[in-house]
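Hi F.,

I've been meaning to write this up properly since the lab meeting, where we talked about keeping a consistent format for the predictions we share between groups. The idea is simple: the sequence comes first, exactly as it goes in, then the structure tokens exactly as they come out, then a line or two of notes. No screenshots and no reformatting. I'm using this chain as the first example so we have something concrete to point to.
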Amino acid sequence: MQTERLQSLALQVEQDLEKINYATKEWSPPILHDGEKALDVAIIGGGQGGLATSFALRRIGLHNVEVFERAPEGGAGPWVTFARMITLRTPKHVTGPDLGIPSLTPRSWFEARYGEQAWRDLDKIDRKDWQAYLDWFRDTLRLPVVHDHALEGVEWEGGLLHLTFRRANGETHTVRARKLVLATGIEGCGEWYVPPFIRDALSSSLYAHTHQEIDFEALRGKRIGVLGGGASAFDNAATALEAGAGSVALCIRRQELPRINPYRWMENAGFLAHFPALPDLTRWRFMRRIFDLNQPPPQDTFWRCSRHDNFSFHPGTPWLSAREEESGIAVTTPQGEMKFDFVIIGTGFIIDFTKRPETAGFAESVAIWRDKFTAPEGEESVVLGTYPYLGAHSQFLPRDAADPKAEMLASIYNFTFAATPSMGLSGASISGMRFGVERLARSLANDLFVQDGEKHLESLLSYETEELVSLGKPDEQAP
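Output, unedited:
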């Protein structure tokens, strides 16, 4: 019955899209390189952002698009890989990649799978259900996703991007594209961060970052330390407790855990749609406030930890150093030493283009905020200054306008979390996806159409399809 309802919903999607398919036919003229057609757009990342962007481009007539995902099928995104929350952190009513098509919404999918009452009873969507929804979304729309393709280099030649991919079997090949979208997730312009005093002092078997694979069963009965106060840190702490850890101590640098979630404020159409149009100083002040507030863990996530008597929470307890001992790990804090058998690091990520194979080849050319903007005294932010300073269409800009890579950068669009200071919520956020995806798709279409403006003019000048075929009376028409 469930399968039949989902199949019926997929048919409804097809019918809905057919009803609104005006002006969705392909309009971009093909570009040939060595006899092969170059892609109009190559999208790197087969998670929610990449899938939604592919769909948005098709809806506005850009069909010569492919999505490349480095993971095998079923492994894109965090939801069934390293995410350890039980449910999404966003409210259930937040729409995602559907782009306003009711039959494509998470709610329609959920009701088809579990029933309308189940949706009414639901608080937040299970992360595994979200992945199942994304899989259904991809399959229903027959989106062009190629798995086991890792982008290892980007070069510019003859007005085209030359993208070098490595397949799972080690073979490499080149794909040509006119435009490139990086939809590579929250760490897509850098790397997950492990403090040097952990990385340099401890054996890799004694710690893991929250994004890594962790054998929680092996932590049964052990003393676990968790560094970081974000939702992922609490998710991992809870997972360890539920797996039977002897004790879990979660430590944060701040004196108090953040309680206000600025993302809930940001969920309004004004901010989501128009933030990129604000002047630099206003955008800077918005983001400085948002970054300072940070996000608290959801209430149910905190309770998931605090319901365990062997969980302890330590605010105002930064870790200063760590060392290995025969009995485990000793961590120095301002309140004294703490002893653990294993530590989990929830310190987020850093922006560093040299750390990603997709961006390493042009990392030194990319403009970041500190290159283009000087904050007023007292309003500085070292972290914000490291984020890319993007153009109005979310494309990279060069530090130096005379840089020979400037033309290439103009064809590369950032749809990762790193776009946030320039573009607001967009690539790595369900909350901002609909607005961010539509803005990105329109930008890509705009740039391609303008680039081919003369070709489109030539097409019009040579257009000779007659619509008026008779100058006689209606009854004089030939049979």
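Notes:
DSSP finds 17 helices and 19 strands in the chain.
The first strand starts at residue 32 and ends at 33.

If this format works for you, I'll send the rest the same way.

G.
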